[in-house]
Amino acid sequence: MIEVRDLRVRYGGRLAAHVPELDVAAGECVAIVGESGSGKSTTLLSLLGLLPDADVSGNVRVCGVDVLSASPRELRAVRGARAALVIQSPQAALSPATRLGVLMRRALRLHGRDAGERVMAEAVESVLLDPAILRRRPHEVSGGQAQRFAIALAIALGAEVILADEPTSALDVTVQAEVVGVLRRLREERGLALLLVSHDLALVSTIADRVLVMRDGEVVESGPAGRVLAEPSHPYTRELLEALP
Amino acid sequence: MRGPVRLRRTLPRVPDRLAGLGGVLIALVVLAAVFAPLLAPYPADELKPAEALLPPDGAHWFGTDQVGRDILTRVLYGGRTSLAVAAAVLAASAAVGVTLGVVAGYAGGWLRDVILRVTDVFLAFPALLLSLALAVVLQPSVSTAVVAIAVTWWPWYTRLAASVAASVATRPYVDAARCLGVPAPMIVLRHVLPNSLTPVLVQISLDAGGVILTAAALSYLGLGAQEPTAEWGLMVQQGQSLFTTNWWVVTFPGLAILVTAFAFNMLGEGLRNALDPRRAVR
Amino acid sequence: MTAMPLLRAERVTLGYGGRAVVHEVSLDVTEGGVGLIGESGSGKTTLARAFLGLLTPMSGNIWYGNQTLKKADLRAFRRDVQPVFQAESLDPRMRVGASVAEALPRAERHRVPELLGQVGLDPELAGRRPHQLSGGQRQRVVIARALAVSPRLLILDEPTSALDVTVQARVLDLLAGLGTERLLITHNLAVVRRLCRTSHVMFAGRLVESGPTADLLARPAHPYTRALRDAVPRLGGAPPRARGRAEAAPAGSGCPFRPRCPLAVAACESAPEPRELDGRRVACHRAEDVLAAAVGEVS
Q1: Which Pfam families does this entry report, sorted A to Z (chain C) (predicted)?
Q2: Which of A106, A133, A135, A230 has the greatest number of CB atoms lying within 10 Å of its CB?
Q3: In this predicted model, what pLDDT tens digit does every residue of B214-234 receive, in sequence order?
């Protein structure tokens, strides 16, 4: 689903992120972990061509499309439908006066998809929400519900891969557990691929198959989640693990 | 949070350029007013009835008026009056308005209610009408115009400062100062006031054009600056009857008002966008 | 335990504009660190504001020693009890040295470098403004400012939640090494485990369980404490569990946790009174069953 070779993101000559290799297959979850300023979010956004100010080089294929050389139209087709971005606070990105159902219907029509009541209800139910939520407005739902709705929207649009940037960092732990549970289920039942950016090693260890640890724009360590977290080879990974309270 | 912020920055920043243009124009107007004695081609109030109503030419770039005064000279000197009026009105209304507003916003409760009710009373009258009434009661002059406009202007700053200060008062650093036992007046002076000023400064630059226009309107109605003071509004009033025959008498001071008011507005809009990233998106 | 607690809440109801968000909470700030655990909207920060004297209770009393806060000597209280809010509690326009100096009498302003040194900061940083410091450095300045008056008790509101983990670890070390008492408000169970001997769990404006921290987290007696603990992801552990549906709103009457509770029965329609049980104070009709299940899990 995602294939990255020698990705370099520069801001005015300064290297903000360098990822030699990153692959995410269908049904797989790969996590990029790091602290603030590590380049993890920059990496994620660059994969969707969302950094127009940055100078991005390398080889990036998302759902078979070469992101760096794709036309804006090709890029939009991938971004809106097959690869979905999930951000930390979706509520802020949803138009406050519009009911969630209307938002979803518009998005589906925009991408030429079936926007029937049943399709929408199924999408919402797949993230364990009551379809009644479609009649509510973004500010009338909780943070966890909004995040799950964002995931439902991605599913309805036919997302094969979800790129999630700190999707649960703004949520309470009990709510985080639900969102993570939904992501796991979608992975198992639909073969959804998941690229997760997070600062939370413990959370990542419970869901990711493979992990990349980033620091100051460079990948310091990568490998199967179990191995990296159990036998870290880089001192920074060890430092991160020891810092866990 | 980081993602959307970064996306936002990629939006074109056209307003910045307009603000820059506004700033340059204002700088030019201010310099022209300050150095009027050096720049003006003729002495300030030199009357030459023989040269009345000459159209613009090499000797008088902007032409002359009914009593033979050089209009370029009068526009330059008029800038002094108009800018001084704007500065005086804005300084007085901001000083009174912000002081009351910050106190109202921080204190809350009955004090806030009383202060805001008073501003309501002032705001209930149409501003120009109240200025007019005051200007009629007092002796018409430039300083009368300043008082008359300032009286109608300060309540806006009170309301603005009150709402900003009320939000600043809930910030954790204000709570921290309260927990340290810092007395309320010190908290207002040290924390609330400095952190409430930015929107007020923006509003001041947005308002400067409006004050100049209002002062011009008062003069135009004969209630502000009086002959022989050079003031743009007064010059427009005296020249308007001649517009069809001697267009330059009214046009150049009118343009001066327009350009200055417009420049202040551009600067204010630009400042607002620069200081408030959320608005820049819209 | 015989000593009188420095601060005590007695059936305190708190709210804004006449609407209560904290209901009849009683809590002693005892020695060894006290944790106040809750998720967003639980009322924990509101309760902290009342303990700091920033919010007057709608009913009930905050006791400072043997006086209610209304009658107490506020100058002494302000010296004894200081807040440590999140790192963003510094005036953005003030140099951080000035922020620390604000806490000091004029004659003692020379102590600023010493105080910055005490929290592990280079005294040179006094001339910087908050945005020129890292999040961890800002949090240390906030702590230095609180320490300036040599308080006996620090009320810490999410002191590390905005920080990166490695920075968080160092700030926690600093806090653990200070010689003051602590009331720590947080949603982070690991931080409470580290800094607090006793903990209280809040849900929907009520205390649902109180007890020794280690015991409370090992064998919760309230289903909400258990849900909270199980939701925290553990390194290499099973995926976090979510029990019950989180979106259910707390009920106006009866047990507030009832709509989310997997163990709810008819008796939960009536509000449970807090009661003593096995070294805890817990407000749940089914606390015995929760405890029994916890024992089963351990074995």
Answers
A1: ABC_tran, oligo_HPY
A2: A133
A3: 888 888 888 888 888 888 988
**Rounded distance, CA A140 to CA B121, Å?**
38
Cβ–Cβ under 8 Å, residues B104 and B115: yes
End-to-end CA distance of chain B: give it in Å, rounded.
18
Look up the pTM and report it: 0.82
- B-facing residues of A in 73-102 (CB < 8 A) are 85, 87-89, 92-93
Number of domains composing chain B: 1
d(CA C15, CA B194): 30
- Roughly what angle, to the nearest 10 degrees, separates helices B109-124 and B142-168? 140
- CB atoms under 10 Å from CB of A99, counted, come to 16
Q: Do C235 and A145 touch (CB under 8 A)?
A: no
Alpha helices in A78-219 (DSSP H): 90-93, 100-110, 117-126, 143-156, 173-190, 201-207
Q: What percent of chain C has pLDDT over 70?
A: 92
pLDDT, residue B174, reads 94
Contact (Cβ atoms closer than 8 angstroms) between residue C288 and residue C220: no
ipTM score assigned to the predicted complex? 0.86
pLDDT above 70: residue B13: no
Q: Which two tokens stand for residue B247?
A: 């267009």
- Domain at A2-243: CATH code: 3.40.50.300
Rg from Cα positions in chain A: 18
Residue B156, domain extent: 79-281
Q: Which of A52, A53, A165 sits opposite B3 (nearest CB)?
A: A165
3-class secondary structure, A169: coil
**B181 and C74: CB-CB below 8 Å?**
yes
Q: Which residues of B fall within a CB distance of 8 Å from C55?
A: none
Taking the Cβ of residue B171 and every Cβ of chain C, the question of whether any pair is shorter than 8 Å is answered with yes
Question: How high is the pLDDT of residue C240?
Answer: 66
Determine the distance in angstroms separating the CA of A228 from the nearest CA of chain B, rounded to an integer: 27
Are residues C92 and B179, on separate chains, in Cβ contact within 8 Å? no
Q: Where are the domains of chain C?
A: 7-213, 219-299
C-beta separation of A9 from A15 below 8 A: yes
E strands, C69-189, in order:
81-84, 153-157, 181-186
Test B9 with A41 for CB contact under 8 angstroms.
Answer: no
The answer to whether the bond into C123 is cis (omega within 30° of 0) is no
CB-CB under 8 Å, C164 with A201: no
pLDDT digits (tens, 9 = 90+) for A144-189: 888 889 989 988 888 899 999 998 888 888 888 888 888 888 898 8
Interchain contact, A184 vs C236, CB within 8 Å: no
Q: How far is CA C182 from each of CA A203, B278, C159, rounded to the nearest angstrom?
A: 28, 38, 12
Kindly indicate the confidence band of residue C243, based on its pLDDT and cuts at 50, 70 and 90: very low
Cα of C49 to nearest chain B Cα, Å: 9
Q: Is the pLDDT of residue C68 over 70?
A: yes
pLDDT beyond 60 at B279 = no
User: What pLDDT shows up at residue B221?
Assistant: 83
CATH of the domain at B233: 1.10.3720.10
Q: Does residue B36 form part of some domain?
A: no
CA distance A144 to chain C (A): 8
Whether domain C7-213 has CATH 3.40.50.10240: the reply is no
Q: Using CA atoms, how far apart are residues B93 and B153, in angstroms rounded to an integer?
A: 6
Q: How confident is the model at residue B88 (pLDDT cuts 50, 70, 90)?
A: very high
